[in-house]
Amino acid sequence: MTNLLQHEVFASSEERAREISALGPWFHNLHLPDGSRTAPHHPLGDFPRFKWLQIASHIPQDLSGWSALDIGCNAGFYSIELAKRGARVLGIDVEPLFLRQAAWASREWGLEDALRFEQIQVYDLRRRRESFDLVLFMGVFYHLRYPMLALDIVASCVRRSLIFQTLTMPGDEVSTSTTVDRDVMDREDFLSPGWPKIAFIEHAFAGDPTNWWAPNHAAVEAMLRSSGMRVLGRAAHEIYLCEPDREHESWTRTPRGAEELASAAGDSGRYAVVATR
After folding, report:
1. Is this prediction's pTM over 0.85?
2. 26, 124, 150, 183: least surrounded by Cβ within 10 Å?
3. Domain harbouring 226, CATH code
4. SS3 label, residue 92
């Protein structure tokens, strides 16, 4: 009897493994309710669980009544964790495979009523005009061809909290000299380690041709402030905790900035024709 039971368990385990494999390849190692894992041999380790453990304590345990947005949701690991805490979550991604995996996983957890997944670009958020109590913008920024446009759009969606993560350049220095204004030829400080700067990656990095940018720490904080976010601190290396800064007039809240953002997002309407000599 024991041997028969062991055989049934083994057969069931094999069938489960085939089901998970048929939905692959997986980038998220989901820990499913029955103990199965989707990517137990992930080259990065137990990813993204170890990232979640870095931010979990910075998110309220009870998210009942909260709305959340998971940008670049992949197979839905973070979305599912937020839904477990009571949030209603929108996960977006551009890869249909990841969205199929996320939808399947949400059913495994019985959370499909709290989760919705959509195939849209981060830039499409501009036209949706939705806002969210909590936004996760992790592992996406440096893959975007138009990063500051995306950050401005995302910042406009945040009601309470933004958790932001990006690939960065080495170093935590922040320049002690003012970056507010200077003479047009006064550029030496641009080369100092703590000056906000971004490395542009023309070709593939880590085998990925969509790795375009690597800002330094000073640039990350400066860009977040410029988009209207107050940086509260870091949950871990490369992970920034932010909230809207209602007192700071970000570039997009100025008339010129709002017009530029609207034009870049394709929703500015027609411009008046200016006569030239």
Report:
1. yes
2. 183
3. 3.40.50.150
4. strand
